[in-house]
Amino acid sequence: MSTYKRVNYREIEPVSGGMHFLREPLDSERVGVTITRCEPNWNSRPHDHAENGHEEIYVLIEGTATVVIDGESVEMEDGDAVWIPPEATRQIRNDDEECAFVLVSAPASIEPEDGNAEWSTDGFIG
Hints:
The chain is mostly beta strands. It is built from no helices and ten strands. It has strands spanning 19-21, 32-38, 54-62, 64-69, 72-77, 81-84, 90-94, 99-107, 109-110, 118-119. The relative contact order is 0.25.
C-alpha cells in the first residue's frame, strides 16, 4: 500500500472557469489545495470561511493580480503570498493578463487547555 497519492492538476476538470480542486483527488482530510488559472479580467466571487473556520493562504505563482480582503486591495506579483483569516471576505481580481495561484486552506487549529493542539475538521469543504 502506498503512503502517498499523486495527481496532475491539469487532469482535474476545472470549476468556475479555472479552479482545479485537489483535496478530493488527493484524499486529503485536513488540507484543501486549489490551483487557480485566472483568465484575463476574471474575478472570483466574494466569500469568507467564517462558518467553517478555514484560514487560507494564496500564493501567486504567475503574473499579477489583486486580492481584495475586507475591502482592501492587496496588489500581488508572482512569488507573493497572503494569509487570510476565516472571517475575512476575500475575492481575486485579475487584470488583463492570465495569472495563476495556489490556494491552500485548512481548518483553524483548536488550542485545548492542556496545550495539545488538534485539527477541527467539522464542516471542511476544501
